Amino acid sequence: MTISEITEKLLAAKKAKGLSFGDLETTIGRDEVWIAALFYRQASASEDEAAKLLTALGLSLDLASELTASSVKGLGPIVPTDPLIYRFYEIMQVYGMPIKEVIHEKFGDGIMSAIDFTLDIEKEADPKGDRVVITMNGKFLPYKKW
Fold it and tell me: Of 103, 113, 123, 138, which residue is least crowded by CB atoms under 10 Å?
């Protein structure tokens, strides 16, 4: 995956300030996952959100136009090479069809929205090793018949 120039600037400023995405969540008033998506240009900020973020990072407000521009969706190769991202690809390869079938049984023929959608990441302590808890919450959209 190629990291854009704006992404590199944002990540470098975040690191230099010693901030986490959770810290920025408090400052900007948006979820930490959404803020991370903004860093990677998978989301677009309002003028106010861009100003708050750039101020928190100590960056020039001249960069606001980069953050408020229409976002780019879906970066990287078809099969990701980053081990963590690849695991999600692998999960969908193994469990994608079962998930689809269970959703169809419960809701009918349709999809889960990735537009009316939230994603939360939590850390759960476990004696056998900490657990990653990911909750995806998307509106069900039935397929239309005409």
Answer: 123
